[in-house]
Amino acid sequence: MLETKINVSFYGHVRQYHNIKEEIDANIHQVLESGQYVMGPMLKRFEQELAAYHGTKYAIGVGNGTDALWLTFKALGIGPGDECITTTNTFFATAEAIWFTGATAVFVDSDPRTNCIDPSKIEAAITPRTRMIVPVHLYGQCADMKAIRKIADKHNLKIVEDNAQAIGARGDGFKIAELSNAATISFIIQKNLGTFGDGGAIVTDDPEIDRIVRKLRNHGSDKRSCHSMGYNSRLDDLHAGVLSAKLKHIDHWNDLRRDWSARYTKGLVRAHNITLPFETPGYRHIYHLFVIETKKAEHRDQLLNFLNDEGIDAKCHYPIAIHQQEGYPWGQKARIAGPIPNSERNAACCVSLPMFPELTEEEVDYTIDRVLDWDRRAR
Ligand SMILES: Cc1ncc(COP(=O)(O)O)c(C=O)c1O
Predict the structure, then answer these.
(1) Which of the listed residues 110, 188, 243, 343 should we mutate to test ligand 1's pocket, taking the one with most ligand atoms within 8 A of CB?
(2) Which of 62, 66, 235 should be mutated for ligand 1, with most atoms under 8 A from CB?
(3) Which atom of ligand 1 is nearest to the CA of 67?
C-alpha cells in the first residue's frame, strides 16, 4: 500500500484552463472586443466548426443540453399522446426533456455490460403511439445504433441521440449523428467538452430540424420583430469562444482519457469485488466517466465512503435511477416496459473514479492502490 495520502479531485477544469489559457483568453478577448455577445460571429464560427467536427450539415448552439433535447423533440413534432422510449439509468434531463413536450416516457432496460439502452428490449415496448427512441451514449460509449436504426426503420420511428457524454466517441462503422435524426450535446463544464458554465448544441443533417430549432431558440423568430411561440435558449458567444478553443484539443483529450482508462483497467483487473467498464469491440469509448460497479449493492456506499475518506473524490453516476426517485413521475406520463434489472443494478452499484485528461500517474496509481486496499478487506 502507498503510505502517503493525497487528494485526487474528480475534475480538472482549472488545470485544463491553464494548459490552453492563451487560446481561451484570445477567443474571449476577441468576443469582448467585437461588441457582439449574443448570436454574434463567434457563435457562427463555432457552429461551423462543430458541424465540421461531426461531419453534419448543421450545428445549432443552444443554452444547455436539456434544451438541446426538448427543442429537437419539438422540431420533430413530438407532443402529448406520443410515446418516447429511453432508459432510467441516465441523468434526469433525458426523461425531463421528453416530459417537457407533454409526451410519455417509456423506460426499457439497459444492456448489462455497456449500460446503454438494450436494443433487444425495445420492440416489446413499441405501441401504435410510439414515435421516438432516445438512446443515451452513457459514460462516453455509443449505444448500439445499428440495431436501434433497424428497429426505427421497421416501425417508422425517429431517433434522437442524447450525446451529452460522448463527443468524439464512435461506434463500429458509424459516427454519432449518422444513424439518427439528430444528436444533442451538453457543454456544461463537467462534460468532456465543457465551457465555464452552461451550453448545449444539436448536430443534424436535417434542414427542417435546423430551421425550426434556430427559430425556437430565439423566441420563435427568424426575422427581427416577427415572432411565434418559442423560447430563449441561445449559446452565448463567450461560451462559443471557449468551446472553439477547446474543440481543437478534444481528440487528444479523449486519447488521454483512454490512456487513463487502460491504466485503471490494468491496475484493477485483479480486484474481486468490482466489475470494470466494458468497451464494445470496435467502438471508441471516450470515458467521459470511468464507472466501476461493486458486485454487491451493499458494497457501493462502503467503497465510495472509503475512497472519499482516503482523499479521492469518487462519485456516483447515477445513484438513483429516475423511476426510483422520490415523486416519480412528478405528474408526468411514464411507463416502465418490462422488468429493468440492469438499469436498477447499474444505479445501485456504480462508482465513478476520477477521470479527466489532466490526471497524473501518481493520482491514478494512488486511486488504484486504494481501491485494491478496499477490495482486499471487503466483506
Ligand atoms: C445524459 C445527459 N443528458 C442530458 C444532460 C443535460 O445537459 P445540461 O445539464 O447541459 O442541460 C446531461 C448533463 O447534464 C446528461 O448527462
Answers:
(1) 188
(2) 66
(3) 11
- For 170-209, b where at least 16 C-beta lie within 10 A, e where not — what string? bbeebebbbbbbbbbbbbeeebbbbbeebbbbbbbbbeeb
Q: What does the pLDDT read at residue 1?
A: 67
Name which residue sits closest to atom 4 of ligand 1, judged by CA. Answer: 93
* pLDDT tens sequence across 268-297: 999 999 999 999 999 999 999 999 999 999
Say how many C-beta atoms besides its own lie within 10 A of residue 229's C-beta: 9
Looking at residue 85, its amino acid is I
Name the residue at shortest CA distance from atom 12 of ligand 1: 164
Q: Look up the pTM and report it.
A: 0.98
pLDDT, one tens digit per residue, over 103-141 is 999 999 999 999 999 999 999 999 999 999 999 999 999
Q: 52 Cβ partners below 8 Å, 6+ apart? A: none
Residues 227-249 pLDDT 10s = 999 999 999 999 999 999 999 99
Residues with CB under 6 A from ligand 1: 64-66, 90-91, 93-94, 136, 162, 164-165, 186, 188, 198, 200
Listed in sequence order, the residues at least 6 apart from 267 whose beta carbon sits closer than 8 Å to its beta carbon are 364, 365, 368, 369, 372
Task: Give 72-86 as a DSSP string.
Answer: HHHHTT--TT-EEEE
Query: Kind of pairing, strands 290-294 and 274-275?
Result: antiparallel
Question: Mean pLDDT, to the nearest integer, of 34-51?
Answer: 98
Check: CB of residue 156 under 8 Å from CB of residue 209: no
User: How far from the centroid of its chain's Cα atoms is residue 264's Cα?
Assistant: 21
Mean pLDDT score of the chain: 97
42 touches 244 (CB < 8 A): yes
C-alpha of residue 369 to centroid of ligand 1, in Å: 32
How many angstroms separate the alpha carbon of residue 185 from the centre of ligand 1? 8
Ligand 1 centre distance from Cα of residue 34 (Å):
30
